[in-house]
Amino acid sequence: MNVVGILHGKGGVGKSTIAVNLARALQLRGLEPVIVDCDAQSTAQSWRTSRGDDEKLPPVFSVEQSSALETDVQRLSDSFDIAIIDGGARLNEIHSEIVETSDLVLIPVQPSPADIWPTEVIIDLVKKRQEATGHPQAAFVIFRRKAGTKLGDHIQKVLGRFELPVWDGTCDRVSYAEAMGKGFSVVEMGDRKAAEEIQSITDNVLDILRHE
Question: For position 111, what pLDDT does the model report?
Answer without folding.
Answer: 77
